[in-house]
Specification:
By secondary structure, the protein is an all-alpha fold. It contains eight helices and no strands.
Length: 211
């Protein structure tokens, strides 16, 4: 009888863990889909730079205000729902910083660098950082020491995504190799959401120096 009860408890725990993992994965897919959508920004900047920069700045202000209101118990239609759907466990009952650093990184690259290096930095953020997290969740088995859970699968995916996107943008394999290696290193650091700023700004600057 005791063995049956123990087996049932174990099965129940496994079922709960699977459901929790599924919820975490859905949230990560939703979050990174927003990351991937940022890949359209270079195209928009090419045709309407000033309006796009203004729109990004306005979105940053509105989102920040909505988060401050949400923390005070005021729900903002649509924005609060999107935030809740994308928030990680570590962000519960806190200001969700990810969208802020994402926009700041894009704005920084757009304001600091020329069009092509800016695009390289934004593509690295969109594809490299975006796909790394998903690959780590789905296929990550081996973690990298001192990185607070970053995985080999995620880092290799980050390198491949940045290399491919940079090469397609620049047609220069040497630049793509350097940018991808540096991007993988930055992504490995336990920076939480602040890699959203460092990746596009630093990699865009490196691309501008090399091109």
């Amino acid at each position: 009888m005791s063995r049956r009860i123990s087996f049932r408890h174990q099965s129940a725990r496994e079922g709960i863990e699977k459901r929790q993992n599924a919820i975490v994965l859905r949230k990560e897919v939703f979050r990174k889909s927003i990351h991937l959508c940022s890949a359209f920004v270079p195209l928009l900047l090419h045709y309407a730079k000033i309006p796009v920069l203004f729109a990004l700045g306005l979105a940053l202000v509105l989102y920040s205000l909505s988060e401050l209101l949400r923390l005070k118990g005021v729900t903002i239609p649509l924005i609060s729902a999107i935030t809740a759907a994308a928030a990680r466990k570590r962000d519960e009952n806190k200001f969700v910083l990810g969208p802020v650093t994402l926009v700041l990184g894009i704005l920084g690259a757009a304001l600091l660098w020329k069009e092509l290096p800016c695009s390289v930095g934004i593509y690295a953020l969109s594809f490299g950082d975006g796909l790394a997290s998903l690959a780590g969740r789905l296929f990550g088995r081996v973690t990298i020491p001192l990185t607070k859970g970053k995985t080999v699968a995620g880092s290799l995916t980050c390198f491949a995504a940045i290399f491919i996107s940079c090469f397609l943008a620049t047609k220069n394999s040497t630049v793509a190799l350097i940018v991808a290696s540096l991007g993988m290193f930055i992504e490995m650091l336990p920076l939480k959401d602040f890699d959203n700023i460092l990746i596009p700004v630093i990699l865009g600057g490196v691309a501008q120096l090399l091109l």
